[in-house]
Design brief:
Elements (H helix, E strand, L loop, with lengths): L7 H5 L2 H8 L20 E4 L1 H15 L5 H23 L10 H18 L4 H10 L5 E13 L2 H10 L12 E6 H8 L1 H8 L8 E5 L4 E13 L2 H29 L3 E4 L2
Parallel strand pairs: 1-6
Antiparallel strand pairs: 2-3, 2-5, 4-5
Helix pairs in contact: 3-4, 4-5, 5-10, 6-10, 8-9
Length: 267
């Protein structure tokens, strides 16, 4: 989902920006590597020693050495943590408890998302989010089909080849309209329900598909998702909107902070 653009005025209302503007330069914690960090420094060095530590940490967890792409991802995460860690120290968030680096990072992330957690989106915002995510709010899959039953698979295949489909008598319905897959399974069995879920709607007979009774040719005329109305989902839509807004605000805040740093990676 596209992140909404921020105006200059909205940045000025962000708590994180207020913290950066008013924060005191305090550094009582130690860095991830064990050396005192200078929060006033705007240079982050990722040398051979740091990269070796990141690779070793990955290997201890995964049981193998990281690929180049995996190491690059670890380096990017290290840079992100270092940016937020230094900003947390600069704001004095380490005062009063024995914090570690990840605790400081968490506090910075929380400060960036605090406004989103308390925000009360109006109906227009929520309906726009609902309309932009139709797959997320669709209900059960409904299928409409005709079926012809055969005791043997060979007989079903022959009928399909002839194009004249006349099934054998059985108590199952020959036509099923707008049924969810759970109901299809209860009538025809799990294997049949899985088979019909893989078919595409067509005017032609398809199959054979096995069931708990035998074999079937199927003419699937429709498959659609049941529509769930916005009013019934409003609380869920609001929770989903808030989760995405929190993630977006964290990313925007980090991008702002990271832009003030020069990252030097020893390749």
């Amino acid at each position: 989902m596209t992140r909404p653009a921020w105006t200059q005025a909205s940045w000025l209302r962000e708590p994180l920006v207020h913290f950066i503007t008013l924060g005191a330069v305090v550094y009582l914690a130690l860095t991830w590597g064990g050396e005192p960090v200078d929060p006033a420094s705007r240079v982050i060095e990722v040398g051979a020693e740091e990269q070796a530590q990141l690779a070793l940490s990955f290997e201890n967890v995964m049981g193998r050495a990281p690929t180049d792409a995996e190491l690059d991802a670890r380096i990017e995460q290290f840079v992100r943590d270092e940016v937020l860690y230094r900003e947390a120290i600069r704001l004095g968030l380490d005062q009063g408890d024995a914090v570690v680096r990840q605790r400081m990072v968490a506090k910075m992330d929380m400060s960036a998302s605090a406004a989103a957690e308390a925000a009360q989106p109006d109906e227009t915002v929520l309906r726009a989010f609902y309309d932009a995510n139709p797959d997320r709010y669709s209900g059960e899959v409904l299928v409409t089909f005709d079926q012809a039953y055969f005791t043997e698979e060979a007989a079903a295949a022959q009928a399909l080849g002839r194009g004249a489909v006349e099934g054998e008598p059985i108590s199952l319905p020959s036509s099923v309209e707008a049924a969810n897959l759970r109901d299809v399974q209860s009538r025809f069995g799990e294997v049949f329900a899985r088979g019909i879920a893989e078919l595409q709607p067509s005017d032609e007979w398809q199959g054979p598909i096995q069931s708990g009774f035998g074999w079937h040719l199927v003419k699937l005329s429709e498959r659609r998702a049941d529509v769930l109305e916005f009013e019934a989902l409003r609380d869920r839509v609001e929770n989903d909107w808030r989760s995405e807004e929190i993630a977006a605000r964290k990313l925007r805040a980090f991008d702002l902070l990271r832009s003030a740093y020069r990252v030097e990676i020893d390749r």
